[in-house]
Amino acid sequence: MSQTIRDAAIVLGVYDLLTSLNFAVFCDWIDVPEANRAEVTPANAGFIRATMGVSDSLLFLDTQGADQSLWMCWEMGWFDGACGPVAVLPVLAEGERHYRGREFLGLYPYVELDEHGQLKVVRPVVADSNGIMIFEAPNSRSFNSWRSDPRDFMRPRVISDWDC
After folding, report:
1. Tell me: the pLDDT tens digits for 105-117?
2. CA distance 18 to 35
3. ∠ CA 49-113-69, rounded to 5°
4. What phi, psi does 4 have (nearest 5°)?
5. CA–CA gap between residue 71 and residue 2 (Å, rounded)
6. Cα distance between residue 115 and residue 118, in whole Å
7. Under a CB-based contact definition with an 8 Å cutoff, are residues 136 and 122 in contact?
8. pLDDT tens across 63-78, in order?
9. Are 99 and 123 in contact (CB under 8 A)?
10. How far apart are CA 90 and CA 61, in angstroms?
11. Are the beta carbons of 86 and 58 closer than 8 angstroms?
12. In contact, 135 and 125? CB cutoff 8 Å
């Protein structure tokens, strides 16, 4: 789980949720509390890279503190290029019902709970250059199915004017 310690209470809640659903989750400051995170060093990066290298998916915990992290964008980019499926796990502000993404995070599917309390992965909506929203089907699939089938990471297709 790519996250920031600035959001410790949220991270702990998500960690507890994921482990209660029987997922193995790595969170550096929970699982290796003795590690020094005060500095970004090649040794620290090597440790995180080695840990990500044995993981089958990465969840980017998108919180208000995420954009201040020195690590999170690097983790996402490295994992996407080296290992495979990346999804955004958004934390919505009070009263918000839908995740809209931000910046490049819109390239990735996002995770939400379904009506049965299980995780599902949702393909993000894309807009063409005229602002027309395009919804692709299937729009979602189970989290376990997404993790186990590397053929389709539920990313939106790139839509351009000449595709029509």
Report:
1. 888 899 999 999 9
2. 23
3. 35
4. -120, 140
5. 8
6. 7
7. no
8. 988 988 888 999 999 9
9. no
10. 6
11. yes
12. yes
